[in-house]
Amino acid sequence: MDISGMRCGGCVRSVTRLLEQQPHVRQAVVNLPTETALVYVIIPKEQQHSKDHDAFLEQIGQRLTQVLLEHNFACKVRDRHGSTASAARVVKAKQQERVKRLEDALKRLAVAGMLASACFLGHLAHLWPGAPRLLHLLGSPRVHGTMSALALIGPGRKLVLDGFQALCRGAPNMNTLVGLGATASFGISCIAAALPGLGWRTFFEEPAMLLGVVLVGRALEERAQLQASSDLAALQGLLPSRARLILAGSDWQEVPAEAVSPGDLLAVLPGDRVPVDGCVISGCTTIDESALTGEAMPVGKSAGEQVTAGTVNCDGSIVVRSERAGDATVMADILRLVDAAQSRTAPMQRLADSVAGRFTYAMMGLSAATFLFWSAVGTRIFPQVLKGVAPTAVLVGTSSGARRGLLIRGGDVLEAASHTDTVIFDKTGTLTRGKPAIRSITPATPELSAEDILAYAACVERQTSHPVAHAIVSASDAQGLSSHTLDAGSLYQEPGQGVSGTCNGVPVAVGVEAWVQRQMNSLGASTSSRPAGEASRRRGSSNGADSSQAATSQARYAATHTCTQKRGLHVLLLSGDREAPAQAVAAAVGIPSDAVHAGVKPAGKAQLVQQLQKQGRCVAMVGDGINDAGALAEATVGIAMGGGVDAAAEVAGIVLLGDRVSQVLDAVQLSQATFAKIKQNLGWAFGYNIIGIPLAAGALLPSAGIALTPTVSGALMGLSSIFVMGNSLLLQLEGPSHMPAADSPPDKQRSHKQAKSPVCETLMRMIVKLQFINGHWVSPASGNALAVVSPIDDAVVGEIPAGNAADVEAAVQAAAVAYKGPWGQTSGKDRAVVLKAIADLLKKKKTELAKLETLDMGKPIQEAEWDLDDAAGCFEYYADLAERLDKKQWSPVDVGTEDFKTEIRQEPLGVVALITPWNYPLLMAVWKVAPALAAGNTIVLKPSEMASLTCLELGALAREAGLPAGVLNVITGLGPDAGAPLSEHPAVAKVAFTGSSVTGRRVAMAAAKNLRPATMELGGKSALVIFEDADVAKAVEWAMFGCFWGAGQVCSATSRVLVQSSIAEAFHEQLKQRAEEIKICDPNEPECRLGPVVNQAQYDKILKFIEDAKTEGADLLTGGGRPEHLPQGRFIKPTAFTRVKREHRLWREEVFGPVLAVASFETEEEAVALANESEFGLAAAVISEDEERCRRVAKAMEAGIVWIGCSQPAFCQAPWGGMKNSGHGRELGEYGMASFLNVKQVTTYQSKARWDWYPESKL
Length: 1259
Hints:
7-stranded mixed sheet; single chain; 48 strands; alpha/beta; about 45% helix
């Protein structure tokens, strides 16, 4: 049963009592956080086998519902036979209800907070005689009385009425205590004010302040319950809602997954999640079963083999016969397991609920006795110190945990963790990285070295998306091995078996051993050795002779057992994998072999936790995947790795944001320290109340004349609170446990350190939401990720998905469906509404996005904010063009005859692929996205893997603005893995690319295979010509801005400066002085004018250019290395060389960094010749006071953009693009939108006369 209206342990006890008093109810387990009741019903024998079985249960459900409704507890019995989809609707409805309750609580809190604050300000008048008159007015009894009355009839009305109604029903709750306290204080104060002769004091401010404090707690409670309700919602998202039902022949149609019946045939394409449990009847593929088993290695599947709902199809199309669907699937069993674990209550909770039910009566009785004895009120505030003993310590404990990278859900989690004596570690993704890596290569013959084998294997594996392929390619790239060329048309891939091809004429096969043997035999080659190693069963390499490549999941932490032994914890390893690899990992981390449980399914994991709990153990489960979710929910405390899936993190009580196993010990240590403080606080509070309450009640008044007045009582209460808070704050001095260096993962034992900023950690957890496809965050098909390393301080600040061809396929399909839907038919006016909404969101979130971009690629914060302004302006500009496009449709063309009427329509292309760079991550994406959307296209955006975070956010912003699902899709990943398959996808109507000229050629050739247009905005080596009549100071300013803006990482940067000889010396002097004054610092500081370059490779490349310039004979004017005050990060001083010659590499090649090459010239003709002597032609600039000369030089420049008297201005209203090796086509302005439109001619023959080209015969 779903029940609402419960507020405290007293309510839980009342609901439990009401349910268990009804006939046929054996037991009721009521859970306050989940707002559910699990009711066990005894069915009479005569009903058990009759047709009335369900009717009998329905009748009991109606009776229980009626009983609870009569006591103001709204409830609903869940459908026992409901489908998984209906269960998801229940979860969603509960979330929506909690959102409404939270909004209501916040509104009431806002009003109560204002009234309480006004009362508090009134108290200041008593302490400050010289206070302004307004404060004295606020402190008057009349004003206090008015505010108290407003608090009672306004924000506190619902609370007070509920309390008195509960009292009338004989089931008082915490609202009853609050209501009695508030109304009693108000009533006594009214009597005191009306009859001043009694000498009583007024306490009008108490109701307002009391209600304010209570409503703060109520709002926090509603928010916590809302967060808790997302657990099952996260799990439900793993089951697909649609399935591809095969009709007659090979056609299929999408249907709701819950409509699939046993025996139905379903098509499952690459990238799809399998919608049912069933059997493959045709096709072969590899299936990622990590959602169930936690193992990273996909499993080959072919005809006759079983597949499970929720698993991911990696690389082949298969047909599956449904055997179990909906609630009968294994994944549905896991959902029920988590739901059942959350519905159960701990023994301590049941004890607390029982005590809470009687606590209300005890407090009411004690207060009534004191009143009757002394006929006075004033003692009710003393017990409030008990409220702070635990919450303050818990608040400090959870905050301290956050600083250590521990996300702790609440005080109950801290309490459970403090008693932990047993820790269960999942293997894959927890003790291992869950990603294959090359461990060793054993050549079978001496003719081939390990490096040769690896290079040949990488040649064919670059074209595939298998996890072992990624391991092979990564190992080859890490060793810097020369890349072989795959012979055209030689690649052959068989899903689940392997891949083969010819590299520079040499046959290569990588795959399952038997398959490799067959491939090589067919090519006339031989294999003579056997693959060894766990992953070699999936892929071994053969090159004339076979080789052994062992790709195993790397053991993460060698210190696990040592660290946990420090606290005397019993450690176990739990895995769905086989015994051998599980024992190997256990040996690597020091876990005894008898503590290893291998081959355990998800339900078995939860059962093991239950068995240990029955033995009296307090169990902590550490895991990272959906297959661990049941055990995480069942455990005394669930601990999720920060790198795991969102579902595991939602179920767990603690999330290790640092993704380090050592943090398990930190969590236990912190929780034990926190509860030690709570015990100390409780000791003080109970002692204080044991003494204070009798004194306040007047126990010593007759004999010693000692009594505590309200004023003294308040002072003592304040001192007690200070003690409790101070003692709790000492938790901040508790340091994390000392961990050995081996605790760090091998791949993170570099100089990279974890980001210190909690804000950054939070942002990363928000951004790492996988690929944005079809309006949702979806997992990359490979399951792999790329590290996000901030260039500011080399900190690893997060991860982005490593997408591949399967992700591209899913994104293109989503975009194609969206284009065929309403978006492709929308008017420009309707599209403009969405574009303007996106612009408004960019303005609203400007600060947040600018900080994210600075963190991601090092751009100074003011530059990033400037880019955000430009991005918003670009959307607004193209919104206007979209509206104007409507008026241009069916525009007439004069064809010189009245017999024909010709009109022009401009229509969208369809699905467009946008590949964008890292130097302006969001802005240059917007330069393409805005006109493409304005034209009516749907988009697959692939940003650079070096700076993707704000582009992922753009997808979320577009969804928030109302853009339909599938219109904008964002995928991330390496160029060969994601960019290449996107460029050559046959369903893409156009490719728009910005990047290097080398990559641009590959993209253009890929698009040309399908005869698709491609817009190329490529590299540059732009020249700035400065004539002798120019203002030298202004020229220096523009020369620096043209090359040092954006740390020189700008394709249009005027990095070649030509200065007329007569002013060259003066120019050099001022350039050196001004460049050395540029502020180089943390780009988050507003005064920063030069930030770091994007990554280590770029940093090394720029320094190599600098060293080569010195070697070739150029003169270093300034800069040339790292700033002395910045030992960390990828900072380079603004650098300038003089006397650079035309043959120098620095003059010819694009540096893409803050390095300026300066040369001199004598005549205008020489300057133009030197400027045009380049393979690039993106931009150029000229500075002179002679306007005619400027226009003459601008005309002679071979560039798509020429600036006069400046450098680098860019406006969305003006076209942007180059010539020669800088690309072709134009972005921005009306040209930018025109490139995303098809021009269609529609001609109508309107003459009344017959055409009569073929005259009829007169016969």
